[in-house]
Specification:
This protein is mainly α. It is built from twelve helices and three strands.
């Protein structure tokens, strides 16, 4: 087993019995197709399983943590936690972009840092852990790396609405979202946005849509205001 995989297992605090599952969890379809070797399997089936396991674990955890919340509140909270951005951020903190197997073309176009891919990686690793060790180590993975910061993650959901409410309540002035740049062809645009409050930049974000970029910028602004004690 290469040292790289040992580093991953140390990072996620789980030792795989079947190391092939770990390798598969980090193998993108572009890499498998590029190599044209039938024995190489990509992570898509593991991601499919991980998605289902993630819903079970987060649902159970939220049900336990928030006994007074009704079904609608729990569903909204779960959606805020398991959204693409939050899972991708967890994957970045675990350095998954350094480990994923991608084709040369996919890596050159920034695939290793794409939110959608990193979200898939978080779920594929979860699926691999579940197959290798069962529900308990899968639960520990989710609790440790996703559910340890629920309050900040829930801010991301409807971040623009939360920011508007906070700014109005504190009478901080007018919010403006400024499009800084857009790159790429029409079918694969990438947007860069900043959010200003009374002319002062409070956050920035990027995404595959302007709405996604604005949401990230709003979230960054919320975290800054929270650190300022607002």
């Amino acid at each position: 087993m290469p040292a790289t995989w040992n580093q991953i297992m140390e990072t996620i605090e789980y030792q795989f019995q079947n190391k092939d599952l770990l390798v598969q969890a980090f193998t993108h379809s572009s890499y498998a197709n590029e190599r044209k070797i039938n024995r190489i399997q990509d992570y898509e089936r593991l991601e499919f399983l991980g998605d289902a396991v993630l819903e079970l674990i987060t649902s159970e955890a939220l049900l336990t943590r928030y006994p007074k919340k009704h079904e609608g509140e729990l569903s909204k909270l779960r959606s805020s936690i398991v959204c693409e951005y939050c899972l991708a951020q967890c994957a970045r903190e675990l350095h998954y972009p350094d480990y994923v197997y991608l084709s040369k073309g996919e890596r050159q176009t920034g695939g290793a840092n794409r939110d959608s891919l990193l979200c898939d990686l978080f779920e594929s690793v979860l699926g691999a852990i579940y197959l290798d060790g069962g529900l308990e180590p899968a639960r520990r993975y989710v609790e440790r790396f996703l559910l340890s910061d629920v309050e900040n993650k829930r801010l991301f959901y409807d971040a623009k609405t939360h920011l508007q409410e906070l700014v109005q309540k504190a009478e901080l002035g007018e919010i403006q979202y400024v499009l800084l740049d857009e790159q790429g062809p029409d079918h694969q645009k990438h947007f860069f946005v900043e959010v200003d409050i009374e002319g002062t930049r409070y956050g920035s974000g990027d995404g595959q849509s302007r709405k996604q970029a604005e949401q990230k910028a709003a979230y960054e602004a919320l975290l800054r205001l929270k650190n300022e004690g607002r």
